[in-house]
Description:
mainly alpha
Amino acid sequence: MNLKTILLINAFLFIAGGIAFAIYGPLMIDMYGILGAEGETMLYWYSTSFARMYGATLFGFGFLIWAASNLPDMSQKGSSARRAVILAMILANGMGLFVSLTQQVSIWGNVTGWLTTGLYALLFLLYTISLFAR
């Protein structure tokens, strides 16, 4: 799989996730099993506002990744811009993998958490492979 395809898949996932978290924040949080206690009104609104901010961030990064996929240097193996983008994506998805795995093990413990962890692991693996591909 070439780098442009990986970047476009990543961009699509982040844009779609961003829209979902920004518009349907409470529903998305509920899928992770975070909000379950009734009567916790302030916790609900704090969590909802954080989910919406996370959605806005994912949305923005999705478009940034999409723009990076169209850079002319992305098709030139060995270019410094290509290497920098790949390294940044390895770091970003590696951090996402680490955080989602720790949250899954300590807090979430559900299918949605494993799906999130799996997506970050897949993206991390694909970018790592593309770094060493000749």
